[in-house]
Specification:
By secondary structure, the protein is an alpha+beta fold. It has 14 helices and 20 strands.
Length: 440
């Protein structure tokens, strides 16, 4: 069917596909792929559009997986759950909670589809926990020849092609169309959350120790201030007492202040940039000072309605303090006025081929600009700081690196490209972004 213009959530990319397909079964996905191959037209699957790069741009057939949703199977004995690829993290979390289970870890946005989230390396924080893709034990993919390839433990039969899982779990959409994902989950648990404003210097001085001492630690630094807002989440069993925020306090913090008022202040900062430092100082006094205990799904993710664009890199954990000091000096030296806070998180080392945290404990540093502001000068300059620290880009966030540089940053980049050559030799699933980061 014909379509209008598609654009992502951050309004950083837009495209008018030749056509849009909305399959509701695996057989229909295979049929679309078969037809695309016959006609010599590229096909790309899309999720919720929360990537800021062109990774999901489809100039040929856009494959909308919103008709493939829900919990396919659940194994209580192993706590493994299989979800259709178009299921959002939010909906998957609710389905798990209804069955006494939970994601081991999540990021602070849960609007992404589960297939899109793993394919781009979406992650949360915690030095003992990897990104969502590290908990993938199996997935099913339709390949370029329209075959259904089962990888790992999909719960639908014997374990197959387990050797491909470290590549396919963060596959960038380059190997095929994921139609379902099987995750290793955990029993539902509570998080005791403490959010406090602290001094930037003190937090940087013991960042590694703070990260190692608790389950989940992260902070947001407001440029032009000496204050960071820290978030410390401690895991508790599901039988522990809940100490919830009042509905009024939760609405005021997460809806009114974090979204409605933040949108207004971003608009004011764009109109009068000189006010940005004062606005940021005010923000540090009005938000981020609370304590509560709630189910994990209600703590990890929070509503985000203010649109932005983001660059994020993973660097060695021990390099985070120096990198942030350099970013701070950069902003001051250039005289920029930056209204969005800088986000700092941590993750465990993993063995996934294209994971930014592959082979090393990592700190993630993310910088943002409002979607109506031009981020390029800021992002390019920050990227150079992070590259100098051995940084690897998040695949769903803005970055400016090509295949040659990425092959040096990711030790198994060449092996992934070789697997792509085998599974998609005619580049049925490629687009300009994948050609840039993987080669033609």
């Amino acid at each position: 069917m014909s379509t209008g213009i598609w654009q992502n959530w951050g309004r950083s990319v837009r495209v008018r596909p030749q056509s849009v397909a909305r399959p509701v079964s695996v057989d229909e996905v295979a049929q679309v792929v078969r037809e695309a191959a016959t006609r010599g037209i590229r096909v790309k699957a899309i999720g919720s559009g929360h990537s800021f790069t062109g990774i999901a741009i489809a100039t040929g057939i856009q494959l909308d997986l919103s008709g493939l949703t829900g919990l396919i199977r659940l194994d209580p004995a192993t706590s493994r759950a299989t979800f259709a690829a178009g299921t959002t993290l939010h909906d998957a979390g609710q389905l798990l909670e209804a069955n006494g289970l939970a994601f081991e870890n999540l990021g602070d946005i849960d609007s992404q589809t589960i297939s899109g989230a793993i394919s781009t390396g979406t992650h949360g924080t915690g030095v003992r926990f990897g990104g969502i893709a590290t908990r993938v034990v199996g997935l099913t993919m339709v390949t370029a020849d329209a075959a259904v390839l089962r990888i790992g433990d999909t719960g639908a039969g014997p374990i197959e092609h387990a050797d491909l899982l470290p590549a396919a779990a963060i596959g960038l959409g380059a190997l095929g169309v994921i139609v379902d994902v099987t995750l290793q989950c955990v029993p539902a648990f509570l998080l005791h959350s403490v959010e406090r404003p602290e001094r930037l210097g003190a937090v940087l001085a013991d960042f590694e120790a703070r990260s190692a001492a608790v389950d989940h630690f992260e902070f947001f630094w407001f440029p032009h201030t000496e204050i960071v807002l820290t978030k410390t989440n401690t895991r508790l069993p599901g039988t522990a007492p809940r100490r919830r925020l009042s509905p009024a306090r939760a609405w005021f913090d997460d809806r009114f202040m974090a979204n409605s008022i933040f949108s207004l202040t971003c608009g004011l900062a764009r109109l009068v940039p000189a006010l940005t430092p004062a606005i940021n100082r005010l923000a540090t006094t009005l938000t981020g000072d609370r304590e509560f205990t709630e189910w994990s799904t209600g703590v990890f993710a929070t509503p985000r309605t203010v649109r932005f664009r983001e660059l994020e890199y993973a660097i060695p954990l021990e390099a985070v303090p120096q990198a942030l000091r350099e970013i701070r000096s950069l902003i001051e030296d250039r005289g920029w006025r930056i209204s969005f806070p800088v986000e700092v998180r941590a993750a465990a080392a993993d063995d996934l081929w294209l994971s930014p945290a592959t082979g090393r404990a990592s700190g993630y540093i993310a910088v943002h600009r409002h979607y109506r502001e031009d981020p390029l000068e800021y992002f390019r300059a920050v990227e150079q700081i992070l590259i100098a620290q051995g940084g690897r880009p998040h695949w769903g966030k803005v970055h400016f690196q090509g295949a040659a540089a990425l092959a040096e940053a990711y030790p198994r980049h060449a092996e992934f490209v070789a697997l792509r050559d085998r599974l998609d030799p005619d580049r049925l699933f490629s687009n300009a972004y994948l050609e840039k980061v993987l080669g033609p």
